Amino acid sequence: KQSIEDDLAAELNELKESKDKVRRFQKLKTDVAGNFFVSTTVDDPGRLLTAIFEDLKTKQEQRSRYIQRLLPVQTTCKAHIDTMKKTVETVLASYDDSATPELTYLVAGKIRHNTNLKHNAMLQEIVQVVKAARPRWTGELRKPDLVLMLDVLHNVCCISLMPRYLEFRKYNLLEVTKPQQNPEVPKESHPATDIPKDAVQDKDTKLKEEDNAPCEEHEESSGDQNGAGDVSRSTTTETTDKPDDGKPPSNEDSAELSTDALKGGDVDSDKPAEPCGD
């Protein structure tokens, strides 16, 4: 018969072994308010999220109480423009566009807590990469087939390829359950696609309604040099409870789902690790 000390020792050993196991979903800190990051062993987080949003859209039932947006992240890299360009090339090379080789695309991005990158300059550099890697693709501001998102958190860049971006209401878990009518890229966003350089406005310049339509919202966030951050989304450290009246929270809470762990000194694992869940 084992003693109490033996039982405690066995339980401690079991806990230590469980910490060493790779979790299928692992929450990571981003140190950006309202955002958290989920590392996963799922081969393709994009397919997983497509299945989730198709189900939400079909059933029109809200399944999330604390998270507003859930974005797929194909990979992460250091937030240096040369590294980002090389990583985008790799991501584009692995993307299968055999079904629609001449699709339309839009490049969008947000920069939070990083003063080294300039929003418009970053987008213009990435647009040139897309043109070289996928010459048959065409830039489209209002209704793109595919959105390439660059989400910079501190010194880490999360790179996402998001099809059906407007159909899934910018991957918003709450909005996608509502009836949809002719979705368009919201006018408050700032896009960069296959367009002349002077067509990409500075962040303080409003795009004319008849000329351009934006891709991603610019929301002011403390510490965000470009003012292009989510005040609150996904994958970000803390989220806000949805009010009891059923209305979504005023700030956008989101989560980023990726097969990679965030690479950077400002992003660390929560201790103890927590599984991802609504």
From TrEMBL:
Which residue ranges does the record assign to the THUMP domain?
A: 55-163
Picking any one GO biological process from the record gives:
tRNA modification
Which Pfam families does the protein's record reference? THUMP
Q: Where is the composition biased (Basic and acidic residues)?
A: 185-211, 263-278
**Which residues are in coiled coils?**
1-28
Please provide, alphabetically and separated by semicolons, the GO molecular function terms listed in this UniProt record: RNA binding
Write out the ranges of the annotated region (Disordered).
180-278
| UniProtKB keywords | Coiled coil, RNA-binding
> Gene3D superfamilies this protein is in?
THUMP superfamily
Taxonomy, superkingdom: Eukaryota
Q: What is this protein called?
A: THUMP domain-containing protein
Organism of provenance: Amblyomma cajennense (Cayenne tick)
Origin organism lineage: Eukaryota, Metazoa, Ecdysozoa, Arthropoda, Chelicerata
